[in-house]
Amino acid sequence: MKMKKITILLTVMCLWTYTSMAQSSKTTTEQSEIEDELVIDDDEEAYERVYTYVDVKPIFCKGASPDSLDNFIKKNLKYPKDLVDSLDWKTVCVRFLVDKKGATSYHKVTEPLHSVLDKEALRVAKLIKFEVPAIYEGKPVKKQYHLYIDFE
């Protein structure tokens, strides 16, 4: 009985040490992404793991230039130019989930700029569908994605 308690205690201590070491080795950017976790509804799919780091990031348009997502965003953005000209900072960050099929959901503005521009950034982000989902260990996985939309 005593040996079982010691084994459990050692296991818990090892796990705690491993977790502490893993957390302390994260960079500042990684820490902010972990602390700003993706919040999703209570449905069956929600219990699957959502990845922040993957082997292959989602691909917007297979075979196209790396700028294809930027071009899509620029083509679809509609906003008052005079409003943007009056602002010093011109970028909105939208976070969302890319599922195993490349569809996006659970969109949220994480770095707001102005209510009009935030709504427009959300509208355009909701139009995005990735042709290739994120890949981890050879399998499609859900990925948390941060998209910075520049209003130029």
Structure commentary:
By secondary structure, the protein is an alpha+beta fold. It folds into 2 domains: 26 residues; 115 residues, Fusion Protein Consisting Of Minor Coat Protein, Glycine Rich Linker, Tola, And A His Tag, Chain: A, Domain 2 (2-Layer Sandwich). The chain contains 5 helices and 5 strands; from the N terminus they run ααβααββαββ. Strands 1, 2, 3, 4 and 5 form a 5-stranded mixed beta sheet that branches. The longest helix is centred in the first third of the chain and has 23 residues.
Task: Lay out the secondary structure.
Elements: H1 2-24, H2 28-35, E1 50-51, H3 68-76, H4 81-85, E2 91-98, E3 104-111, H5 115-127, E4 134-136, E5 139-150
